[in-house]
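ARCHIVE CARD
Drawer: 12
Card no.: 0347
Subject: one protein chain, sequence and derived structure
Cross-reference: see card 0346
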Amino acid sequence: MRNYYFLIILFLITLSDKVLGINQGDLIKFHLKVQDVIEGEIPFGAAKLFELIIENNGLDSVKLATSNVSPWMVYSGFWKVHIEGPVDERCKEYISYSVDEPGIGEVPCIEIPGKSKKEFQLSLVGVGGVGVYKVRVEYNGKGVPWEGCFNGVIRSEEYTFQVKEAKGVDGEIIKLWKEQNPNSPLCIFPLEMKPNILLPDVLLTHFPTSTYAGWVLADFRYRTADFDKEGRKKEKLDYRDLIEKFIEANPNFVLSGYLLSKAAYISLEYGETEKACILYERSLQLSWKGFFSERLKIESKKRAEDTYNKLKKEGKCK
């Protein structure tokens, strides 16, 4: 009798949504992740803070029509990002949204397997002015010409975020840019600025404690060759010093914990174990929420925790 009930349960959970008479549109949910930012922060890396999360609560895979051109949200008529807020009329053409996984194959679509979710980045690059913004995402599959793609409508709820006035060194940068570009909308910041802070070296030299510098440090790439050991060592230690200087000025930066863990790793690499312990311990107390992907955040923080715990177990950290 027990096996009989087991087989019935197994049969029920393996039934498809269609057999069960469930509307697929009711099983697909759109969620957005948004974050308050400061003026000019989005083009430097804060775009990673905005996500579209597509969740499939059904048993069957669902395909949503896109475009085989990247970014597929921009070039697909089936998707729309609605933004309300103090958007400069001249910036409307820059209000774009990109997702970095275009549909592949004869039928351009994204496929969300049953009981899973996928995360995609939204790049609201035209949002620049100070104020409160409301954003929602809509998929309208009516008229989809490809068989197998969902032809219904799915909408997210409305999410609110704020662009705050830049202050301190950030405010100085914005002020300088506005003085140099008095007739330009903020959505094209930092183009046409001297010094050219789009160049990482220039930004880190002139404004190393700005919020914008934090995003540059997070994506920093070494330039010296691997075989140039002395040159690489100097570059890494200089990079570590820049991180520490930045964190001292910006302890609440959304990736402060991640940045400090990178500084800790460099210290450990060059035999400064005591310093590495201090940096690892502090990094785990700071913010890691600036990652695009929750999975990447968890993996990165776990690596730092594992290294720190290993050092403590070995008696190298007090």
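Annotation on reverse: Residues 7-22 have pLDDT under 50 and may be disordered. The radius of gyration is 24 Å.
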